[in-house]
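Input record, target 12 of the design panel.
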């Protein structure tokens, strides 16, 4: 399996597993405990890794969210809690989710080892949000476990979050490189207008048919950019990682 093939094969699991914790009731409860809406916690929970920066910077880093929606969520959040602290809470919930879901996953130690090498070796050039998340220390407070399989499960979830941010950043670069706007990329993707609405964009929306060829080009370029990170693994290790991701995906879905 080539690095690009690995990136393409890993895509569904990475996208789902890297964000599954954000929809967990406990994560939403943490948002309420902080006095935040779910949207404000999502925006600041991701963008807060950058620190207390202007909303325009967060919009640029997140890429696919509408600027007005980012500004609303970011300003609401930063009035209540420092953004970096919200990101730390977000990471805590991610790790807690992993400790619960992946502690008993067969091969979780290998998943952590292989995914960790990919994350550590990935080039973060032009990927500021991925770089910021990779630089965040594990939370000292409220960690779900301090030993054994639960720790491995927590680490697995954190690495999946990082792989998702890495792919999201690469996809944003690819989308802009082929001449699509973020909104056009969403409209021409699998989520279509529903995705645009969820990300805060307001109609009218562009027609998707003229965008499909460039969207396919952007997807292929994304796999090429993401695939570079998987070169640290051998072909056999890449195949093993895909198998482990599929097992984790099935576990999370169950």
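The sequence produced for target 12 reads:
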């Amino acid at each position: 399996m080539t690095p690009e093939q690995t990136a393409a094969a890993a895509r569904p699991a990475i996208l789902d597993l890297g964000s599954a914790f954000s929809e967990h009731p406990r994560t939403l409860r943490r948002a309420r405990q902080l006095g935040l809406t779910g949207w404000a916690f999502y925006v600041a929970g991701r963008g807060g890794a950058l620190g207390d920066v202007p909303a325009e910077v967060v919009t640029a880093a997140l890429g696919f969210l509408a600027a007005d929606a980012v500004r609303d969520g970011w300003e609401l959040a930063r009035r209540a809690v420092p953004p970096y602290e919200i990101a730390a809470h977000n990471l805590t919930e991610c790790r807690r989710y992993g400790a619960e879901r992946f502690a008993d996953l067969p091969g979780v130690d290998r998943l952590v080892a292989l995914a960790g090498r990919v994350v550590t070796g990935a080039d973060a050039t032009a990927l500021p949000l991925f770089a910021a998340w990779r630089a965040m220390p594990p939370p000292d407070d409220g960690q779900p476990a301090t030993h054994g399989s639960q720790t491995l499960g927590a680490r697995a979830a954190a690495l999946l979050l990082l792989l998702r941010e890495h792919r999201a950043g690469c996809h944003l670069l690819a989308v802009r490189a082929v001449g699509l706007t973020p909104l056009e990329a969403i409209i021409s993707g699998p989520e279509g207008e529903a995705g645009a609405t969820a990300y805060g964009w307001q109609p009218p929306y562009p027609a998707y048919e003229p965008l499909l060829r460039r969207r396919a080009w952007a997807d292929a370029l994304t796999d090429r950019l993401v695939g570079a990170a998987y070169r640290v693994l051998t072909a056999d290790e890449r195949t093993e990682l895909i198998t482990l991701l599929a097992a984790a995906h099935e576990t999370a879905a169950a």
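Residues 3-253 form one domain.
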